[in-house]
Design a protein that fits this description.
The structure holds 2 protein chains of 2 kinds. By secondary structure, chain A is of the alpha/beta class. Helix content of chain A is about 20%, strand content about 35%. Chain B is of the alpha/beta class. Chain B has a single domain, classed as HUPs (Rossmann fold, 3-Layer(aba) Sandwich). In chain B, the strands form 3 sheets. In chain B, strands 3-2-1-4-5 form a 5-stranded parallel sheet, sandwiched between helices. Chain B is globular and about 45 Å long. The N and C termini of chain B lie far apart (about 55 Å). Classes of the chains: A alpha/beta, B alpha/beta. The interface between A and B is large, with 40 and 39 residues.
Chain lengths: ~190, ~250
């Protein structure tokens, strides 16, 4: 079971930022459930993996509620943070965000082989804040504006924390597919 | 037990149910912007106005609908005010004009967001996103990344009365122009999809549509006079009648 966490303040934005991620999971035949971050229950965290979806450019509500993501520190499974989700992951892990705007197609270069990405690829960016990689995280791919994919493999807990600043559900759905399929050798 | 006991919880619980927001809909008269309008209404938003940008340039990347001059009739049928701006349709100039018309809507109707019918076009969606971000208003794309089959089924389920106004793809000849987009149309289109790879929702510009009636229309539109421009595969609407649905029901 995969838990999809919705960060949207406006309900109609779920159609734009949560549903496309769910559509990828559905196409794969994955079992998943969706929960808004303000309505998470303890049982939800039994999920094998968690995806934190992004939200709109003008929505910063989730950043005012970082304490509500404290559970990320104790969660045992793999986590994929998309856009706003990556910003949360970074800040919970001791990193920070900074003003950086990317809207539309963005060219990204990867530093090492990762989840099936070529050396250079286009992504769909939609953010007003960039991410500064926290200690212990590795920057896997970057654009001219900064880090685009960061990850930390926690060997002691056997989990992977993965943050992507772009929206893979738009141009790179295989990224979500590979994240869900992959059993990481951590 | 809820995991979260943060004091702001109650305050934000209201927000996620969806605040009623005054929005403007970027409208082209086609099936996608009309469906986006219906979704915005269903999500509780108040549709303050329709916005259209009418380009002189027929090859405009941003705004391309052959029946754009008849959107006024749709606005009348919907009983929603229309804000229109003419543009030369040159690449950056038309974006400046789009910004102007959105600014006007913000001033006149105090809208807090724009709704678009963008499905897969990053070119269009990202440009509207940029303008909304600049003007500090929300941008909603409720059809974003929709699966084409699901999109088509939704249109059929909602009983939109839509006709094809232009075709531009191998396999779609003149006989497709003016066709009503009903279940027969989509089943024929599926065959073309299998043969030529035509997108069912017309996302590759295979066809353009014009909505004559939909659940939120107070009146329905009827094409009284039309002509087919065979050179450009376009239906040219010459006259449209507005027919009261109330009277028809009686």
């Amino acid at each position: 079971m995969i838990l999809v966490v919705n960060l949207c303040k406006e309900k109609m934005h779920e159609l734009e930022f949560v549903k496309p991620v769910c559509d990828v999971l559905e196409r794969m035949g994955n079992d998943y459930s969706v929960r808004h971050y303000l309505r998470l229950k303890k049982g939800d965290l039994d999920a094998e993996k968690i995806i934190l979806c992004g939200t709109s450019l003008r929505d910063f509500g989730y950043l005012k509620h970082l304490r509500m993501f404290d559970w990320l520190r104790d969660y045992q499974g793999d986590v994929l943070g998309i856009c706003g989700g990556a910003q949360i992951l970074v800040q919970i892990s001791g990193g920070s965000v900074f003003r950086s705007q990317e809207i539309g197609k963005v060219l990204v270069k990867r530093k090492e082989e990762f989840l099936g990405f070529p050396e250079e690829f286009f992504v769909y960016g939609l953010h007003n804040l960039g991410i500064k990689s926290p200690e212990g995280f590795q920057v896997v791919a970057s654009s001219s504006e900064g880090a685009q994919i960061i990850l930390r493999k926690e060997k002691n807990r056997g989990r992977l924390l993965l943050g992507v600043l772009f929206h893979p559900e738009v141009l790179n759905p295989f990224f979500i597919e590979n994240f869900c399929k992959q059993r990481h050798e951590v | 037990m809820c995991l979260l006991t943060y004091p702001y919880h109650k305050k934000y619980k209201r927000a996620i149910i969806g605040d009623r927001m005054k929005v403007g809909v970027l409208f082209s008269g086609g099936k996608d912007s009309c469906l986006a309008l219906h979704l915005a209404k269903e999500y509780g938003h108040q549709i303050a106005c329709l916005l259209i940008v009418a380009p002189d340039n027929k090859d405009s990347f941003m705004f391309h609908t052959p029946a754009l001059e008849w959107v006024g009739k749709q606005a009348e049928a919907l009983e929603i005010p229309l804000l229109k701006i003419e543009t030369a349709g040159e690449k950056e100039e038309e974006l400046e004009d789009l910004k102007k018309v959105i600014e006007k809507a913000v001033r006149k109707y105090n809208i807090k967001g724009i709704v678009t019918g963008a499905v897969r076009s990053i070119y269009q969606a990202s440009r509207v996103q940029r303008i909304c971000n600049l003007l500090h208003i929300e941008c909603f794309n409720p059809l974003w990344m929709r699966n084409e089959e699901e999109h088509v089924q939704d249109l059929l389920k909602r009983r939109f009365h839509t006709v094809v106004t232009r075709v531009s793809a191998q396999g779609l000849g003149r006989e497709w122009i003016g066709r009503e987009m009903n279940s027969d149309f989509f089943s024929d289109l599926k065959k073309m999809h299998e043969k030529y790879g035509i997108n069912l929702a017309g996302e590759g510009g295979e066809y353009e549509s014009f909505v004559l009636d939909a659940p939120l229309f107070k009146k329905r539109l009827e094409i009284a006079e039309k002509r087919v421009d065979e050179k450009n595969n376009v239906m040219l609407i010459k006259k449209i009648k507005l027919i009261s649905k109330k009277k028809e029901r009686r």
